[in-house]
Amino acid sequence: MLDDEKITGFAEELYQALRQQKMIAPLTDREPDITIEDAYAISSQLLQKRIEIDGEKVIGKKIGVTSKAVQNMLGVHQPDFGYLTDAMVVDESEVLSLTDKMIQPKAEGEIAFILKKDLCGPGVTVSDVLRATDFIVPCFEIVDSRVKDWKIKIQDTVADNASCGYFLLGQQAVDPNSLDLSTCGMVVELNGRVISTGAGAAALDSSPVSCVVWLANTLGKFGVSLKAGEVILSGSLVPLQPVEPGDYMSVSIGGIGRTSVRFK
């Protein structure tokens, strides 16, 4: 366990890395005894800085590292969660500047849930999530890490707000009860070439709905609920794709729709 001074220090270091677009050494290299609880305490303080200093507002939550493809790529073998703010939103018509805003970005296709009712664990079930969801949309999350060269363990990515960067929501809104989210297929293209495919069952070996269940119940342990109106990113179904200025990516999800993102 870390003392309060170290937690505050790491939160400040991560905040400055975010604002100055610089990388820092892995926290786990410097503090091998850091716990996941320590990491979430750092993440909470990092979020408070973004709220108090920059005026950002929380508009949702995300679950990360849900598929085997992503877990194997990062060497992190359990999910984590982070907070989404209004400063992270990218419009479909916008071209996202990687050089101005990010450090070492990677993009991933996801399904986003928009809630109409609160969800507060523990005890949240699949049925609860479906009843609480207003609609789902195709989504891109562009993750980023302030930790040098993505050399992260679970504590590093948790402390860094689950490696959040930016996210973009598609326009097609679909009732999640209208299709089987465990079998829906995903196709991701980079510059017109198919680079990965996946299916809903890749999410925690079950379904994106199971990811939202996990998130609601895990957050409940911290006294945090998923709120009506919030955006919930349910995790990638495909490997992360490094992106560079000039790249164009699209994601198509069976029964849900398509969205795309451009980078400069």
List the helices and strands and how they pair.
Layout: H1 4-20, H2 27-30, H3 36-54, E1 58-64, H4 68-74, E2 80-85, E3 89-90, E4 95-96, H5 98-101, E5 106-115, H6 126-132, E6 133-143, H7 154-159, E7 166-169, E8 185-190, E9 193-199, H8 208-220, E10 231-233, E11 241-242, E12 248-253, E13 257-263
Parallel strand pairs: 1-10, 3-7, 4-13
Antiparallel strand pairs: 1-2, 5-6, 5-10, 5-11, 6-7, 8-9, 8-12, 12-13
Structure characterization notes:
With 264 residues, the chain is α+β, with helices and mostly antiparallel strands. It has a single domain, classed as Fumarylacetoacetate hydrolase, domain 2. The protein is 29% helix and 28% strand. It has eight helices and 13 strands. The strands form two sheets. Strands 1, 2, 3, 5, 6, 7, 10 and 11 form an eight-stranded mixed sheet that branches. β12 and β13 (257-263) form a beta hairpin. The longest helix has 19 residues, at 36-54.
Q: Let me know the number of strands.
A: 13
Sequence of secondary-structure elements: HHHEHEEEHEHEHEEEHEEEE
Write down the domain tally.
1
How much helical structure, as a percent, in the residues?
25-40%
| Overall SS class | alpha+beta
Quaternary state reads single chain
Sequence stretches where pLDDT stays below 50 over 5 or more residues = none
Rg calc? 17 Å
Q: Architecture in CATH? A: Alpha-Beta Complex
